[in-house]
């Protein structure tokens, strides 16, 4: 595992990342493809995502890799057949692709802009920059307070089981990966404080139960 890398793109299948990895190798860009098989987020109300393969690069390489990707697909975008499904999308649907580019591949993102331009709805670079910044801000918003999970955490913590430790750790350390490579805590400080309390109670209860078992 290479330290200091951030998630640049997620893929459902490993083969989907091969073309991009070739570009990174040709340009001597350090990367790592990780199989993220953890179901932690989906089990506890986090970012539910079936994509398991994460392509990671250094944060400072994000802009460069984006430009390299754009160069790779630019010719394909210019010569795409008119029966491609995006041509049937409404202006609103195409704008949504542009606003949520992290949910789409680079080809669809650029093609959506091309189609909008052809329809007289061009989004200029300045506006794209504003959209991207606002999207990062929106994604940085903390998750809704997981009251039900906190209640379960405190309940199981008193029993000294690993579930309390698991929940406490999740509340404390769960982070969301942003499209620009940054990672932010998923929960508010008060929810992370609950996670810390659940961890402490779980640890104390665990050792108490161990002690009682030994002296029976």
Notes on the structure:
Helices cover 54% and strands 11% of the residues. The chain is mainly alpha-helical and 216 residues long. The longest helix is centred in the last third of the chain and has 26 residues, at 189-214. The relative contact order is 0.11.
Look at the helices and sheets and give the structural class. Answer: mainly alpha
Helix proportion: 40-55%
Content of β-strand: 5-15%
Strand order of the largest sheet: 1-3-2
Q: Could you state the oligomeric state of the chains shown?
A: single chain
Shape, principal axes of CA atoms: elongated
Mean pLDDT across all residues, rounded? 86
State the separation between the terminal residues, measured CA to CA: 45 Å
Order of helices and strands: EHEHEHHHHHHEEH
- Rg, Cα atoms, Å: 22 Å
* Low-pLDDT regions: 39-49
Count of separate DSSP helical elements: 9
**Sheet of most strands:** 3 strands, antiparallel
Number of domains: 3
Q: What is the β-strand count?
A: 5
Layout of helices and strands, plus pairs?
Elements: E1 5-11, H1 18-26, E2 31-35, H2 40-43, E3 53-58, H3 62-78, H4 91-99, H5 106-118, H6 125-139, H7 147-157, H8 162-173, E4 175-177, E5 183-185, H9 189-214
Antiparallel strand pairs: 1-3, 2-3, 4-5
Helix pairs in contact: 3-5, 4-5, 7-8, 7-9, 8-9
For this entry, give a set of tags.
216 residues; mainly alpha; 3-stranded antiparallel β-sheet; two-stranded antiparallel ribbon; 9 helices; 11% strand
């Amino acid at each position: 595992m290479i330290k200091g890398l951030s998630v640049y793109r997620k893929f459902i299948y490993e083969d989907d990342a091969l073309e991009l990895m070739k570009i990174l190798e040709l340009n001597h860009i350090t990367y790592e493809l990780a199989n993220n098989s953890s179901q932690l987020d989906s089990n506890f109300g986090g970012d539910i995502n079936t994509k398991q393969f994460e392509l990671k690069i250094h944060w400072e390489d994000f802009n460069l890799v984006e430009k390299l990707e754009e160069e790779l697909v630019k010719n394909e975008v210019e010569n795409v057949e008119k029966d491609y499904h995006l041509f049937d999308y409404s202006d609103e649907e195409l704008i949504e692709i542009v606003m949520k580019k992290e949910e789409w591949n680079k080809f669809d993102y650029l093609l959506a802009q091309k189609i909008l331009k052809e329809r007289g709805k061009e989004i200029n670079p300045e506006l794209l920059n504003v959209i991207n910044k606002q999207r990062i801000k929106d994604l940085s918003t903390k998750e809704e307070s997981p009251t039900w999970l906190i209640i379960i955490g405190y309940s199981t913590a008193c029993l000294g089981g690993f579930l309390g430790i698991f929940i406490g750790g999740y509340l404390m350390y769960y982070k969301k990966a942003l499209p620009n490579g940054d990672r932010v805590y998923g929960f508010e400080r008060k929810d992370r404080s609950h996670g810390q309390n659940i961890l402490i109670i779980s640890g104390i209860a665990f050792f108490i139960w161990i002690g009682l078992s030994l002296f029976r």
